[in-house]
Structure formats: structure tokens, C-alpha cells
């Protein structure tokens, strides 16, 4: 029996992962006059702001002093926040509200396990905050995804053992984090990228609780 559901946010609850990468692209264009290739998008998905910037600078083989690194993070977040200004409840991805309702109807506790420090703001804009019994704070965990820490913190926030939880993710780092936490991983995306997920769906409209429960039951029998 599933007792807890741990949600990623960007790319699962709302399509904000696109905005993250647009902000990185704009930042790098303005500061270094360089274009970021598409492949960096998946590599920065689910990854903390600092780790994402480091990955991008490593890719570009650019070294910056700590002060400039911090300034770049601030600037990126300002660009990202601008794109969130228009965010409304209707921007919640298909099937998510129905899934939250179904979980709640079955008394399955719901927690957020997002790497984003902007997650509480986004949940509020989407008017979804009340569904969440806990929001794990990425600033309080030691290691970001792919480490399990944020999922462990989210499970702890709802007082459910990770093995009794499902985790839902759209990123490679996120699926690795759920698997490392020993929860049941549900991937939203392609098998090419998220092949390590215990259950994979193409998009959020296919996140049906009955299907997830059936697969979860099979998984724990094995
Ligand atoms: C994750 C996103 O959810 O949050 C990453 O997938 C992002 O792209 C990370 O870097 C941190 O977000 P923020 O809002 O704290 O910069
Ligand atoms: Mg995500």
C-alpha cells in the first residue's frame, strides 16, 4: 500500500523547467556571448541552482571568481522570476490536480521534494499549497539530486518510510535520487532518459493512481 507521494515540481507539477533553461540561456548570452546547446537542459534538470551553474561553466570551460559566481546565480534567479510572473492555476500540468485529489481521497500523504528554492512561491501561484502536508527545504539538505536527501526529507516530513512512498520525477538526477531513497520511482518522460524508473509514463496526463498502485504492489512483491 502506498502511504506517501513525493512530488518533484519543475516539469511535473508545472512546465517551469523550460523557464529555468531559458533563464540560463539568457544569462550566458548576456554575460559571455555564448549559446548553450540543448543537451545541457536535461543535464541541469533537477539539479540545484549552484550545481547547474557549475555544470554550465564547466561545459563552457569558463572559470569565474566566487563573487561573480554568486552574482550570476542572483541574475539567473531574477530572469527566472520574471518568467513566473504570469504563472496561474491553469498552468498546472494535465492530470496533476486529479492525481492530487485521488491521493487525498485515499488518505495518501503528499509532500514536495523539489530542488527549487522558489517551489513554495510556485505552489502558491498555482493554488496547490493546501494539498501538501510537507515541503522539504532544499536549503536544509546536505546533497542535492541525484543524492536521495531531498526525498528522504520529504518522506520524513510526512512521517512515512521511503519504501512506502512513490516519487514522481521528470529528470535523470531525480529518478536516481528516488531510487537511492528506496522509494518507488515514477518517471515522466522518455525511456531513453528515464529508463531507470520503476514506472514510466509519457506525460503527466497518464499519471493515474490506480495504475501506479498496481505497479507498486507488483514491485513490492518482487
Ligand atoms: C529544479 C530545476 O527543480 O530546481 C532546476 O529542475 C533548478 O532546473 C533547481 O536549477 C533549483 O531551482 P531554483 O529555483 O532554486 O533556482
Ligand atoms: Mg523536474
UniProtKB/TrEMBL annotation:
Superkingdom of source: Bacteria
Enzyme Commission (EC) number: 5.4.2.6
InterPro entries per record: B-phosphoglucomutase_hydrolase (IPR010976), Beta-PGM (IPR010972), HAD-like_sf (IPR036412), HAD-SF_hydro_IA (IPR006439), HAD_sf (IPR023214), PGP-like_dom2 (IPR023198)
GO molecular-function term, one example from the UniProt record: beta-phosphoglucomutase activity
Keywords attached to this entry: Isomerase
Pfam families in UniProt: Hydrolase
Catalytic EC class: isomerase
Family under the similarity heading: Belongs to the HAD-like hydrolase superfamily. CbbY/CbbZ/Gph/YieH family.
Identification of the protein by name: Beta-phosphoglucomutase
Organism: Bombilactobacillus folatiphilus
Lineage summary: Bacteria, Bacillati, Bacillota, Bacilli, Lactobacillales
Amino acid at each position: 500500500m502506498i502511504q506517501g507521494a513525493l512530488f518533484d515540481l519543475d516539469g511535473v507539477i508545472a512546465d517551469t523547467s523550460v523557464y529555468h533553461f531559458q533563464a540560463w540561456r539568457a544569462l550566458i548570452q548576456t554575460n559571455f556571448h555564448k549559446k548553450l546547446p540543448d543537451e545541457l537542459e536535461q543535464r541541469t534538470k533537477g539539479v540545484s541552482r549552484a550545481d547547474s551553474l557549475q555544470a554550465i561553466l564547466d561545459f563552457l570551460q569558463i572559470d569565474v571568481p566566487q563573487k561573480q559566481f554568486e552574482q550570476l546565480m542572483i541574475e539567473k534567479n531574477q530572469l527566472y522570476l520574471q518568467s513566473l510572473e504570469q504563472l496561474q492555476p491553469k498552468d498546472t500540468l494535465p492530470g496533476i490536480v486529479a492525481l492530487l485529489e485521488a491521493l487525498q481521497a485515499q488518505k495518501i500523504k503528499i509532500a514536495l521534494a523539489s530542488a527549487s528554492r522558489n517551489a513554495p512561491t510556485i505552489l502558491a501561484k498555482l493554488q496547490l499549497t493546501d494539498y501538501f502536508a510537507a515541503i522539504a527545504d532544499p536549503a536544509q539538505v546536505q546533497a542535492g539530486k541525484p543524492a536521495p536527501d531531498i526525498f528522504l526529507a520529504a518522506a520524513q516530513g510526512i512521517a512515512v518510510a521511503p519504501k512506502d512512498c512513490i516519487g514522481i520525477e521528470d529528470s535523470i538526477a531525480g529518478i536516481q535520487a528516488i531510487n537511492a531513497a528506496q522509494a518507488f520511482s515514477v518517471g515522466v518522460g522518455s525511456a531513453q532518459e528515464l529508463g531507470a524508473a520503476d514506472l514510466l509514463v509519457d506525460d503527466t496526463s497518464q499519471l493515474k493512481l490506480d495504475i501506479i498502485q498496481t505497479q507498486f504492489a507488483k514491485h513490492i512483491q518482487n
